[in-house]
Amino acid sequence: MTEKILLLFSAMRDKRTPWYAKAMVLLVLAYIVSPIDIIPDFIPVIGLLDEVILVPIALAFIFNFIPESVKQDELLNEIDEANKKKLMIVGVFIVVSVWLLFILISLLVFPF
Q: Which of 21, 33, 76, 89 could be a cystine partner for 65, CB 3.0 to 4.6 Å?
């Protein structure tokens, strides 16, 4: 799965990738971070299933829109370790930042 995410990240930067594939990726990312879900998260177990099921299906659908030439080029020119580490650091930074922002807002709204 990590390879597909890295391939998707590389394809997003490629000029041969159609604009609608890039737009669909942005919509999926917006859905992931959006507080509005198809099934509310407060419903136990079922609330998280929409992310677990819909996001992989959407990403698999998006991969069909990426040209084969882009996929082959990215697989042949595998992302080097420096880019993998940079991508991982950026991902961790984004996740930690969102959580810290959430905690800060919670403390401001509901002070102890």
A: 21
- Nearest to 28, CA basis, from 11, 51, 1, 3: 51
**What is the spatial distance between Cα 38 and Cα 51, in angstroms, rounded to a whole number?**
9
Which is it for the CA torsion 33, 63, 77, 16, positive or negative? negative
For residue range 8-25, list pLDDT tens digits in order.
777 888 888 899 988 988
Tokens representing 53 are 């099921």
How many Cα atoms occupy the beta-carbon half-sphere of 106 within 13 Å?
6
The single residue listed with the structure tokens 């403390």 is 107
What is the DSSP track for 40-56?
-TTSTTHHHHHHHHHHH
Q: Are 6 and 87 in contact (CB under 8 A)?
A: yes
- What CA dihedral angle connects 37, 39, 43 and 45, to 10 degrees? -100
Residues 56-107 pLDDT 10s: 888 888 888 888 888 887 766 665 666 777 777 888 888 899 889 988 888 8
